[in-house]
UniProtKB/TrEMBL annotation:
PANTHER family: GLUTATHIONE REDUCTASE (PTHR42737). Its cofactor is FAD. This is Glutathione reductase. GO terms for cellular component: cytosol. The gene is gor_1. GO terms for biological process: cell redox homeostasis; cellular response to oxidative stress; glutathione metabolic process. Its EC number is 1.8.1.7. Residues 2-42 form the FAD/NAD(P)-binding domain.
C-alpha cells in the first residue's frame, strides 16, 4: 500500500488506496484528523460500496472544528490571512464583533466573545467564520452549513436575528 513521505496512506477522493479493494479513512490518511471527519468519510465510503452510490465521497473543504476549551473556539473556512493570500487584499472584507456573553453579563465572571466573518468579492461571499466565546461549540454548526452552501453577507443581513443570543451577532455585524 502506497504511503506518502510522512507515512500516511495515500487515497483518492473515494478513499481508495493503491491496493484494489482496500480503503482507508480517518487519521491514517493525513487528511483532516478529527473524529467527525473520519466518521463522515466512513459513512460516505459505506454508501458508495453498499448502497449503490458510486459518486459518494467526502468534501474535505470547509470542515468546521471546535476547541472544547473554556471558552470554546470555533472555526470554519479560510482565516483572514488565507483569504487575503488566495483572493488579494482588495477582495477581502472582514466583519468583527466583540461583546460580553449575555449568559455571563450579570455575573462577576463576565466572558468576552469575539466573532469574525471573512468575506470576498463584490458579492461578499462568506469564506470564513470564526469565534471564541460561550456557546461557540454549538453556534458554529448551523453557520458552517451556510458557508458550505455559499452564503453571502447579504444572506446573513437578511436573516432575522434570534434575540437574545450570541449567535445573532453573526447576522447583525456591520
Amino acid at each position: 500500500m502506497k504511503t506518502d513521505e510522512k507515512g500516511y496512506i495515500v487515497v483518492d477522493k473515494f478513499q481508495n488506496t493503491s491496493v484494489p479493494g482496500i480503503y482507508a479513512v480517518g487519521d491514517n490518511t493525513g487528511a483532516v484528523e478529527l473524529t467527525p471527519v473520519a466518521v463522515a468519510a466512513g459513512r460516505r465510503l459505506s454508501e458508495r460500496l453498499f448502497n449503490n452510490k458510486p459518486d459518494e465521497h467526502l468534501d474535505y473543504s470547509n470542515i468546521p472544528t471546535v476547541v472544547f476549551s473554556h471558552p470554546p473556539i470555533g472555526t470554519v473556512g479560510l482565516t483572514e490571512p488565507q483569504a487575503r493570500e488566495q483572493y488579494g487584499d482588495d477582495q477581502v472584507k472582514v466583519y468583527k464583533s466583540a461583546f460580553t456573553a449575555m449568559y455571563t453579563a450579570v455575573t462577576s465572571h463576565r466572558q468576552p466573545c469575539r466573532m469574525k466573518l471573512v468575506c470576498v468579492g463584490p458579492e461578499e461571499k462568506i469564506v470564513g467564520i470564526h469565534g471564541i466565546g460561550f456557546g461557540m461549540d454549538e453556534i458554529l454548526q448551523g453557520f458552517a452549513v451556510a458557508l458550505k452552501m455559499g452564503a453571502t453577507k447579504k444572506d446573513f443581513d437578511n436573516t432575522v436575528a434570534i434575540h437574545p443570543t450570541a449567535a445573532e451577532e453573526f447576522v447583525t455585524m456591520r
